């Protein structure tokens, strides 16, 4: 069973500001509660082919994985994928203007859990939705402060 979770928020900031902050993986530990660290494997800035090592905790477990940027349309869309671990995943950010100075940011996580994760997919989907909803609230607070 796959996991496919999409959440969104509207941030009271222009698209360029939201995309610049949220699209820079270096900032992820500031607004993702479960991400402890990000280390670049390639030189910044973000571009297709960029690779970063993430360390996170999820459902009480420490998880280390490498994301690779597979798609980048500056100010519109960023897609990253990871293939290793118990939960290979794709994370997609999209940004679209809402009026002159507001941005709708959408965050989608989808993937196919392996092993025990397959059985736990419904629980994982609920946990991912809860975590990403909270993460977008935190991002909104940071950017609107």
Task: Give an overview of the whole structure.
- It is a single chain.
- The chain has a 7-stranded antiparallel β-sheet with strand order 1-7-6-5-4-3-2.
- 28% of the residues lie in helices and 41% in strands.
- The longest helix is centred in the C-terminal third of the chain and has 24 residues, at 121-144.
- It contains 4 helices and 7 strands; from the N terminus they run E-H-H-E-E-E-E-E-E-H-H.
- Strand 3 and strand 4 form a beta hairpin.
- With 145 residues, it is of the alpha+beta class.
- The mean pLDDT is 91.
What is the domain tally?
Answer: 1
Low-confidence runs: none
Strand content: 35-45%
CATH class: Alpha Beta
Which structural class do you get from the secondary structure elements? alpha+beta
Number of strands: 7
CATH architecture: 2-Layer Sandwich
Shape: globular
Q: Which homologous superfamily in CATH is the superfamily?
A: START domain
Summarize this structure as a short list of keywords or feature phrases.
single chain; 145 residues; alpha+beta; Alpha-D-Glucose-1,6-Bisphosphate, Chain A, domain 4; seven-stranded antiparallel beta sheet; 7 strands; 28% helix; globular
Describe the secondary structure blueprint for this structure.
Layout: E1 3-11, H1 15-22, H2 28-31, E2 35-40, E3 51-58, E4 61-73, E5 77-82, E6 89-97, E7 103-111, H3 116-119, H4 121-144
Give a short overview.
The protein has 145 residues and is an alpha+beta fold. Helix content is 28%, strand content 41%. The protein has one domain: 2-Layer Sandwich (Alpha-D-Glucose-1,6-Bisphosphate, Chain A, domain 4).
């Amino acid at each position: 069973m796959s996991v496919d979770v999409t959440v969104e928020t509207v941030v009271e900031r222009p698209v360029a500001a939201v995309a610049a902050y949220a699209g820079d993986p270096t900032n992820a530990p500031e607004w993702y509660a479960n991400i402890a660290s990000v280390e670049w494997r390639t030189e910044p800035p973000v571009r297709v082919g960029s690779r970063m090592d993430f360390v996170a905790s999820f459902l009480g477990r420490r998880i280390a994985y490498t994301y690779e940027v597979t798609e980048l349309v500056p100010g519109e869309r960023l897609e990253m994928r990871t293939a290793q671990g118990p939960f290979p995943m794709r994370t997609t950010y999209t940004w679209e203007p809402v009026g002159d100075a507001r941005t709708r940011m959408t965050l989608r996580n989808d993937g196919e859990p392996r092993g025990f994760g397959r059985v736990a997919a419904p629980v994982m989907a609920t946990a991912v939705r809860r975590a990403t909803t909270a993460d977008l609230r935190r991002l909104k607070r940071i950017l609107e402060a």
